[in-house]
């Protein structure tokens, strides 16, 4: 009796096996989902009426371009939010007070991701008269503040009343950079800065990486007398004071400088 079984051609067998393969297109796994979109900024710096303000609302994750909007509440008068970068900038117009608002971010993914963060900005009144003591220190946060100074003497001594004090308050551990820029203004100021506590005692947690140095600095760049710069580390929420003086001895109104603060959490 003849067998009814017949050999399957080799080429046909390979074609059959290939057609039964699993997986996605061309056998590749699907791409992983994009990382979650999250606003990471929780605290924004303090502003001062009549002074420039510049803060960035940071975010991580998402896909493609991001768009920031104010979804509830409003920024203080004079400030605006750049939708494409998350930068809050402008000159605070007043009145003094705290503005609360919600920032929403969206990305350009398909479908888009979203996140929201409640924030606030406190705007303080501009100081009346000179901020020439710890008691009359100007409160500042992250940002750039323009000022002028009359010379007063050296840090750590009994000074005449034309020095400048600024109060910085953190809400968590922070590494804060304090930068005095006078050269850019064409100023003759020979700045010196020190960081002190509420009693006027110089702190000793400055200068990376160790942060074990006394908090006093003269020339940021050798040969450039106008500019000074310090970094200070605080391990907890704290208030400390930036003391700005001039190494010279002749009072002149053209001794201008910019105070640049960053890293306040």
Helices, strands, pairings?
Elements: H1 10-19, E1 38-39, E2 47-48, E3 52-56, E4 59-60, E5 66-73, E6 79-81, E7 87-91, E8 97-107, E9 114-124, E10 138-139, E11 143-148, E12 164-169, E13 174-181, E14 191-196, E15 216-217, E16 228-234, E17 239-246, E18 256-262
β-sheet strand percentage: 35-45%
Strand order of the largest sheet: 10-12-17-14-15
- SSE-based structural type: mainly beta
Shape label: globular
Mean pLDDT: 81
- Describe the largest sheet: 5 strands, mixed
Helix amount: under 10%
Question: Which stretches are poorly predicted, pLDDT < 50 over at least 5 residues?
Answer: 1-5, 10-24
Radius of gyration in whole Å, from Cα? 29 Å
Number of strands: 18
Distance between the termini: 92 Å
Report the order of strands and helices. HEEEEEEEEEEEEEEEEEE
- Helical region count? 1
Please name the defining characteristics of this protein.
265 residues; mainly beta; five-stranded mixed beta sheet; 18 strands; globular; disordered N terminus
Structural description of this entry:
This protein is mostly beta strands. The protein is 4% helix and 38% strand. The chain has one helix at residues 10-19, and strands at 38-39, 47-48, 52-56, 59-60, 66-73, 79-81, 87-91, 97-107, 114-124, 138-139, 143-148, 164-169, 174-181, 191-196, 216-217, 228-234, 239-246, 256-262. It has a five-stranded mixed sheet with strand order 10-12-17-14-15, with no helix packed on it. Strands 2-9-8-5 form a four-stranded mixed sheet, with no helix packed on it. β6 (79-81) and β7 (87-91) form a beta hairpin. The termini are far apart.
């Amino acid at each position: 009796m003849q067998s009814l079984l017949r050999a399957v051609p080799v080429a046909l067998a390979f074609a059959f096996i290939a057609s039964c393969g699993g997986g996605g297109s061309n056998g590749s796994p699907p791409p992983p989902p994009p990382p979650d979109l999250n606003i990471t900024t929780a605290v924004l710096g303090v502003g001062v009426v009549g002074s420039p303000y510049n803060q960035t609302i940071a975010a991580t994750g998402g896909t493609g371009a991001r768009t920031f909007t104010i979804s509830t509440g409003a920024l203080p008068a004079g400030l605006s939010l750049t939708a494409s970068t998350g930068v809050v900038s402008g000159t605070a117009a007043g009145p003094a007070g705290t503005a609360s608002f919600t920032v929403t971010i969206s990305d350009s993914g398909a479908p888009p991701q979203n996140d929201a963060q409640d924030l606030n900005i406190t705007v303080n009144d501009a100081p009346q008269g000179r901020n020439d003591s710890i008691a009359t220190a100007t409160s500042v946060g992250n940002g750039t503040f323009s000022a002028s100074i009359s010379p007063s003497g050296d840090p750590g001594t009994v000074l005449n009343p034309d020095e400048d004090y600024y109060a910085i308050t953190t809400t968590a551990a922070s590494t804060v950079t304090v930068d005095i820029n006078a050269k850019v203004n064409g100023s003759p100021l020979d700045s010196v800065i020190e960081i002190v506590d509420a009693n006027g005692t110089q702190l000793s947690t400055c200068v990376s990486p160790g942060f074990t140095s006394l908090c006093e600095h003269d020339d940021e760049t050798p040969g450039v007398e106008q500019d000074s710069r310090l970094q200070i580390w605080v391990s907890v929420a704290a208030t400390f004071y930036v003391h700005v003086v001039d190494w010279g001895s002749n009072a002149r109104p053209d001794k201008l400088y910019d105070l640049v603060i960053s890293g306040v959490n």
